[in-house]
Structures are given as C-alpha cells and as structure tokens.
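task queued by scheduler; priority normal; single chain, no ligands, no partner chains; default sampling; output format set to structure tokens
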Amino acid sequence: VESFDDSTTVLNARSLSETDATLAAVRNRLLVIALAVTLTAVLVAWFVAGRLARPLQRLSAAAEHITATGDLATPLDTGAAGEVGQVASSFAEMLAAFERSRVQQQRLVVDAGHELRTPLTTVRGNIELLASGKLTDSDQKRALELIGSEIEELSNLTAELVELAGDQPVDAEMTAVDLFDVAHAAAARARSRSGREIIVGGTHTQLLGNAAGLDRAVSNLLGNALKFSTGGTPVVVSVGADAIDVSNTGERIPDEDLDRVFERFYRAPTSRSLPGSGLGLAIVAAVAEAHGGAPFACNRSDGVHVGFTLAPDAAAI
C-alpha cells in the first residue's frame, strides 16, 4: 500500500506461489531427511541388537545342544564383551566343574569295580571248593577263614566307598575337639588290635572340627603305619597345635609315589601284595581338606612320616 499527496492510494499485490513453493520444498526436504534419519536409526538399532543378541543366541544353542546330548565339553563363546561374556564364562566354568565331577565319578566306579573283583573272586572260588565236598577238615576251615577275611575286606571297602561318595567324607557338624584325646583314643584301639607299641606325644589342643572324621583319619594313619612298619619298632604319633604326624621306621616310600599315596585306590608297587583297598589315605586327605588343611608324606632320617595339617585358625578356640 502506497499513499500520495493528492490523496491517491495505490495497492500493490504479489503472488504467494513462489513462497508456497519454497515452503513446500523445505517441507519435502524435511520429510525426506526425517525418513532417512528414521530408516538409518532403525537399521543401526537392528544391527546393534543383532550384535548383542548373537552371543546370547549362540549360548542358548549351546545350552540346548548340551541338554540334548549331555556333551559337557561343548565349546562356548566366552569372548563376548560385557555381561554376556561374563555369563558365558561363568557357564563354561560350571560345565568344566561338572565335567571334572563326572570324570571323577566314572573313575571311582571303575576303580571300585576293579577293587571289588578280587575279593569277590576269592569268595566265589572258596565257596565252590566248599560245595564240591572234596576238601579235608583243615582245608575247609582254611577256606572259611579266607571267606571271612575277604568279606571283612569287602565291608571295609564298602564303608570307605560310602564315605568318599559324598561331597564330604565326614559329618559336617563341627564341635570343640581335643586333638590329643582323639589321637590317644585311636592309638588305644590300634594298640589293642595289633599288640604293637604306639607312642603318642604332644600337647592338648582344642580346635573346631569333626570328631568322627578326625578319629577316622588318625585311625587310618595308624593302620597304614602298622602295615608298613618293621617288626618290633614302635609307631610314633606326634600331636601339634594344628597337625598330626604318624611316623614309623618301615620301608621308605619311593620318591615318585610321595605325591600319589593320597589318591583314591592308588597303591604303590611295593604294597600291592598287602591287604587294603587304597582308600585309607584318600580318606585322610579328604578329612584334612574338609578342615582347611592338607595331607603330607615324606621320608626322613628317623623314618617315614605321614600325616595331615589343619587350618591354623581352627586351633586354640
């Protein structure tokens, strides 16, 4: 609008089509950019979600494979980053522990079958001889004695297998125990059964432990020492603040066997002709470990020393 001095007014008008076209172009560009940004965001989210979900999918597939086949050795992808990798690593460690447990169980069954075969064969053979009616009275008596001794061996082996079959070979209850009294009681029983001299030395030590398990461990150590010690020499039990040491002057343990005498069913070549199941010292090791300690065996100038330690914080309660 423009006014002049003569009172004339002039109106000027201009088409908005150019402005509308510009706005439409801007609008279309914004729509294209918005669509492109949205599509890009969707693609990026799909890609990232796929990357994150892929390790979970592999882990799920591996778990389904393990469930279907029982193959605990199935490899797992533990290289993923973040929480997924941590879960996969924990799962792999759990499977490895299960695999070790299964191997140990299979080994226990195989070894137990091997150990049971010998006494069962002896019992069966003597029963067949008795049933034949061809034995003299003295031979019948001898056969019955052999059957009795083999049945006792089977009973001991069964009891030891039952103890070792559980997670802990001893009752889990822990009470105040005097280690010196435990050693004295076990030595008294071994002394009455064998007629051998057993010397117990040390001091009274109160500790938190399982009395039945410790008693069994000391009894097994004494039985082992009596079996391998020479004739009239005494067996010496030394009671420390957190350890039991049983020594004898018998045949030295071969150096290559020192680290294996506590294995289940292991018997050194020099002891395979002697009675026993090879489980006695394995129970000693299990009892020591249940009390936070460890077994030990060594050859010294004064004889063979076999025993176990306990956790230092278990003593002096």
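post-processing summary
- The beta strands are 2-3, 9-10, 175-178, 198-202, 206-209, 235-239, 243-248, 295-300, 303-309.
- Helices lie at 17-69, 82-132, 137-165, 179-194, 211-228, 280-290.
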